[in-house]
Amino acid sequence: MFLFRRGAGRLTPEQARIRTGDGAAVLLDVRERQEWSAGHAPGAVHLPLSRLAAGAALPPDVRDRPVVAICRSGNRSQQAAKLLAARDVDAVDVTGGMKAWAEAGLPVVDERGQAGRIA
């Protein structure tokens, strides 16, 4: 049974937090390293879209789990969800990305676990 429609669904930041908060799905941040380092959602897994598009393997924490893709504003995460669906991964993305996540008052941390910012 799939939690999401393959590559077709979009979630609000609040819905994404609920879906990934219990560990049933994984939040996959597809921004580049510099953006990730500045600020990301706690518990998110990092795999840049550029690497995903080049065919990189999914991190172990992502394999065989539903994925909620997130980027800065929602464009790259839509692409990521489509790429993941083509790999037979159950994936959706977050409308508005990390900008909307932060605007919703959801936590953002930097690579040291301190308060982060959206770059």
TrEMBL record:
Pfam families the record matches: Rhodanese
Source taxon at top rank: Bacteria
Domain Rhodanese positions: 21-110
Matching InterPro entries: GlpE_sulfurtransferase, Rhodanese-like_dom, Rhodanese-like_dom_sf
SMART domains linked to this entry: RHOD (SM00450)
Record's protein name: Rhodanese-like domain-containing protein
